[in-house]
């Protein structure tokens, strides 16, 4: 049986080397806001969306989430959560911003510029929203994963989601 690291490297090579995936890389210095045209990043097929989603029944607060984009109820498959023992969804007010900084840090900030969430990856050359529904932050050098939503799951599963080996 192949070692898990080899399988992960092989999967990354296939996923990150396809022309459509390369076209969807999220560049350093880009950002998303809760309102306006830059509120989400799509997977290459458009099946999944990573971005700000209004909390049901409240247009003043948002979740940073991934959801199925091509179905009417837009089921969330992942959302940013607190690091407590019993994690809670992080709700941010209108005017919040998600920055993928020029130094390769993904940072969710409220309207006062206070950081409310950061996955802990640094020095990333790019990020990508994959057609599997996994949002990936590449490690320095770009050939391995520094952080991914599949290893930070919520309570939603689907057929393309793989379980972490660790």
Automatic annotation (TrEMBL):
It holds the Pfam family B_lectin. InterPro entries: Bulb-type_lectin_dom (IPR001480), Bulb-type_lectin_dom_sf (IPR036426), G-type_lectin_kinases/EP1-like (IPR051343). Its EC number is 2.7.11.1. Its main location: membrane. GO terms for molecular function: carbohydrate binding; protein serine/threonine kinase activity. Keywords: Kinase, Lectin, Receptor, Signal, Transferase. It catalyses: L-threonyl-[protein] + ATP = O-phospho-L-threonyl-[protein] + ADP + H(+); L-seryl-[protein] + ATP = O-phospho-L-seryl-[protein] + ADP + H(+). It is found in: Membrane. One of its GO terms (cellular component) is membrane. Residues 17-150 form the Bulb-type lectin domain. GO terms for biological process: response to other organism. Residues 1-23 form the signal peptide. The keyword Lipoprotein does not apply. It is a single-pass type I membrane protein. PANTHER family: G-TYPE LECTIN S-RECEPTOR-LIKE SERINE/THREONINE-PROTEIN KINASE SD2-5, G-TYPE LECTIN S-RECEPTOR-LIKE SERINE_THREONINE-PROTEIN KINASE LECRK3. This is non-specific serine/threonine protein kinase. The gene is LecRK4.
């Amino acid at each position: 049986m192949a070692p898990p690291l080899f399988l992960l490297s092989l999967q990354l090579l296939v996923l990150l080397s396809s022309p459509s995936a390369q076209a969807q890389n999220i560049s350093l210095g880009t950002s998303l806001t809760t309102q306006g045209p830059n509120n989400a990043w799509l997977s290459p097929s458009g099946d999944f969306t990573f971005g700000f989603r209004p909390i049901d029944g409240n247009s003043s607060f948002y979740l940073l989430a991934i959801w199925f984009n091509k179905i009417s109820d837009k089921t969330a498959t992942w959302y940013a959560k607190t690091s407590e023992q019993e994690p809670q969804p992080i709700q941010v007010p209108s005017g919040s911003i998600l920055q993928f900084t020029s130094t390769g840090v993904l940072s969710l900030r409220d309207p006062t510029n206070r950081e409310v969430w950061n996955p802990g990856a640094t020095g990333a050359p790019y990020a990508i929203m994959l057609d599997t529904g996994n949002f990936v932050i590449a490690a320095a050098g770009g050939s391995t994963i520094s952080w991914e939503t599949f290893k930070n799951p919520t309570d939603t599963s689907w057929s393309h989601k793989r379980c972490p080996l660790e």
